[in-house]
Design a protein that fits this description.
The structure holds two protein chains of two kinds.
Chain A: H1 7-12, E1 24-25, E2 28-32, H2 38-51, H3 55-69, E3 75-77, H4 79-82, E4 89-94, H5 104-117, E5 122-127, H6 131-142, E6 146-152, H7 153-158, H8 160-168, E7 172-176, H9 183-197, E8 201-203, H10 214-237, E9 243-247, H11 252-258, E10 268-276, H12 287-290, E11 292-296, E12 298-303, H13 328-336, E13 339-345, H14 346-360, H15 366-382, E14 387-392, H16 400-407
Parallel strand pairs in A: 4-14, 5-6, 5-8, 6-7, 9-10, 9-14, 10-13
Antiparallel strand pairs in A: 1-2, 2-12, 3-4, 11-12
Helix pairs in contact in A: 3-5, 5-6, 5-10, 6-8, 10-11, 14-15
Chain B: H1 5-13, E1 18-24, H2 30-43, E2 47-51, H3 62-73, H4 78-90, E3 95-98, H5 101-107, H6 109-118, E4 123-125, H7 135-143, E5 147-149, E6 151-152, H8 158-167, E7 172-175, H9 190-199, E8 206-209, H10 215-222, E9 227-230, H11 232-240, H12 242-257
Parallel strand pairs in B: 1-2, 1-9, 2-3, 3-4, 4-5, 6-7, 7-8, 8-9
Helix pairs in contact in B: 2-4, 2-12, 6-7, 10-12, 11-12
Chain lengths: 416, 263
């Protein structure tokens, strides 16, 4: 099996699930943004329309995915972990083994190539956990682009190691101290930079949200996950999974793997949202579970907001899921009933984080641990005949400080 | 017929630009913002823009961001906006509202238009709503006789300037620079070109904003624009006190009356 074959061409080709020409997925998506930036997203959409059918672009993207990012990523069965899931079989799509440690590299390589095509020299990005920032800094180092990453001040503290990685890769990291000082404010600041520097700057958005065409192109750059996983699970398990589970913050890894199965009506697509302290506590980031329709960062989608339409602060142990919005296509899939979304609390995610580490020797990202926790629950619902595919979207090295604090790993065994 | 048209017509007769001053509602308090806005009107603002404080103001620089944050922390609610508009209107001033789209959407587009019109507001400026997505708002504005003021930017194509002009009423808001709000030392060189391009597509009055803070700058803009829009400088003046607000308004009002003849 290889990432060629269907390859990047298959991955980027138009689908029946694409939005209308103005980026609407049903009532969601579109462009709710300043006029000053419309020319830039128009340019991006036009460039992407050309690139997605240009053999040269597709070949270069495919080559980078294979020879630089390390695709195809493995599919690993997790039998000992699955014993805790009511006996259902569980397979992990190993995006954690990609270069830079998560699925994020797929999208940044695609967008960095588009940046070069547009003749732009400077890239800006937002980051929450730092995974997208590190991936962006990496692609910019590789392709000789100037890189500036905006990161909430709170996140620079809980992900200090990733800040250091970005700086080592030559990126400038700017801590954002306005608003809630997390991901949403980093996006605000990146948008402000973009308005002022749009002539020579591409905003390399890290998730399948934002104004058209970002939700489509970010999704397409991640469709390789689902394309590979479908082929791999058919080979290893001899059939399609009953459930595909993925964590959803903005929703890029989820939409990437979901699309591999979206036309298989018997495969349930389940997104696991950050439930924080519990949805009833009000301290969470479960946008699709508890949000209401609104416009945030350029698109209509479900958002967490108060009755005045002021955007709420999200809360999650996972910096990468700590976002009060979500990609518009997920809102659409929820309304259609094609995908289901469930909250996972911090405690459930951390239990799954520890369980996968001990049973399979794989330390997952705290984000991905939400998908694993969901698989544990779904496994019990499905029983022994069940087959679950989990997108293990990233590795957990970056989360060691969180784990040390949560589990008291710095204390002697008996004191924990 | 636009309810702002007579004001621009009068200014045109007087051979000057209109002075348009912005302040976030509820900054520093609800009463404080009402007093300041009335003072701005009394000292020479032809029109005031009442800003609706929002949690995620992506088009605003630090000055207005902090003012909005302060207003929200002090407990400002969207329903308080209409009282602020009403206090301007009942004192004989003209007011429009400037708001990011999400609070309007959440309030209900038609309900917002209805309550704004009932408070005596004349229109709404929408910095993150382009006409392409504004079907509901355009219908509500027509129902409640409000002007809809969309923005054009130096990056706007000819097609977009044409379609945005066609969707607008009252006036067009031309952003003089590619950037966020905030006082600047030098008036942008992009502004005259943008206004010239826009005039090829519309007879609507054109207000120019972003970066203006002095009578001298106002005079430069008044040479080619129909309205001069000032925001962050008023927020800064509020921090210095009532007299600073009056003095700034008078300076700007003189500026729009001595338009420098274009070279």
């Amino acid at each position: 099996m290889s990432s060629t074959g269907k390859g990047a061409g298959g991955q980027l080709s138009p689908t029946p699930h694409d939005p209308d020409s103005r980026g609407h997925f049903g009532p969601w998506g579109g462009r709710f943004m300043p006029e000053a930036l419309i020319a830039a997203v128009d340019e991006l959409a036009a460039e992407y329309d050309k690139a997605r059918i240009d053999p040269e672009f597709l070949g270069e993207f495919d080559r980078l995915l294979r020879d630089y990012a390390g695709r195809p990523s493995l599919l690993t069965e997790a039998p000992k972990f699955a014993k805790h899931a009511g006996g259902a079989r569980i397979f992990l799509k190993r995006e954690d083994l990609n270069h830079t440690g998560s699925h994020k590299i797929n999208n940044v390589l695609g967008q960095a190539l588009l940046t070069k095509r547009m003749g732009k020299k400077r890239v800006i990005a937002e980051t929450g956990a730092g995974q997208h920032g590190v991936a962006t800094a990496t692609a910019c180092a590789l392709l000789d682009l100037d890189c500036v990453v905006y990161m909430g001040e709170v996140d620079t503290q809980r992900q200090a190691l990733n800040v250091a990685r970005m700086r080592l890769l030559g990126a400038e990291v700017i801590p954002v101290s306005t608003g809630s000082r997390t991901l949403k404010d980093a996006i605000n600041e990146a948008l402000r930079d973009w308005v002022a520097n749009v002539d020579d700057t591409h905003y390399l958005l890290g998730t399948a949200a934002g104004p058209h065409p970002f939700p489509v192109l970010v999704r397409d750059f991640h469709r390789i996950i689902g394309i590979e996983a479908r082929e791999q699970i058919l080979q290893k398990a001899g059939r399609l999974p009953d459930v595909v589970a993925a964590c959803v913050g903005g929703g890029s890894n989820a939409i990437g793997i979901f699309h591999g199965f979206i036309d298989d009506p018997d495969v349930r697509l389940v997104g696991l949202e950050p439930g924080g302290d519990g949805v009833d506590s009000g301290r969470h980031g479960a946008t699709l579970t508890a949000g209401t329709p609104g416009s945030l960062h350029g698109a209509m989608s479900y958002v967490l907001q108060d009755e005045d339409g002021q955007i709420s602060e999200a809360h999650s142990i996972s910096a990468g899921l700590d976002y009060p919005g979500v990609g518009p296509e997920h809102s659409h899939l929820k309304d259609l009933g094609r995908a289901e979304y469930r909250p996972i609390t911090d405690a459930e995610a951390m239990d799954a984080f520890a369980l996968l580490s001990r049973t399979e020797g794989i330390i997952p990202a705290v984000e991905s641990a939400h998908a694993l926790a969901g698989a544990l629950k779904i496994g019990h619902e499905l029983g022994e005949e069940g087959l679950i595919l989990v997108n293990l979207s990233g590795r957990g090295d970056k989360d060691m400080d969180t784990a040390v604090e949560w589990f008291g790993l710095n204390k002697p065994e008996e004191a924990r | 017929m636009s309810r702002l048209a007579p004001m621009f017509a009068e200014c045109r007769e007087q051979g000057r630009a209109a002075l348009i001053g912005y302040l976030p509602a509820g900054y520093p308090t609800i009463e404080g913002s009402q007093d300041t806005l009335r003072r701005m009107v009394d000292s020479g603002c032809d029109l005031v823009e009442v800003g609706l404080p929002y949690s995620d103001p992506v088009m605003d620089g630090p000055t207005i961001q902090l003012a909005a944050e302060q207003s929200l922390r002090a407990g400002f609610r969207v329903r308080d906006l209409f009282g602020v508009v009403e206090s301007v209107a009942s004192a004989g001033g003209r007011a429009v509202v400037m708001s990011y789209w999400n609070p309007v959407l959440r309030y209900g587009v038609d309900a917002f238009a209805r309550d704004l019109a009932a408070a005596g507001g004349l229109g709404l400026i929408t910095p993150d709503l382009v006409p392409d997505e504004a079907e509901d708002w355009i219908a509500a504005a027509e129902r409640h006789s409000l002007d809809r003021i969309f923005l054009v930017a130096p990056s706007s194509t000819e097609d977009r300037i044409a379609s945005t002009s066609a969707a607008s009423s009252g006036f067009l808001y031309a952003t003089s620079v590619m950037g966020v709000t905030g006082a600047r030392d030098v008036v942008s060189s992009a502004a005259p070109e943008l206004v010239r391009r826009t005039r090829e597509h519309t007879d609507l009055p054109i207000g120019v904003g972003l970066g203006v803070r002095s009578g001298e700058q106002a005079a430069e803009l008044a040479a080619f624009a129909d309205g001069v829009i000032v925001g962050s400088a008023f927020v800064s003046a509020v921090r210095e006190g009532e007299d600073a607000v009056s003095a700034l308004t008078r300076d700007l009002a003189q500026g729009v009356r001595r338009a420098a003849t274009p070279a």
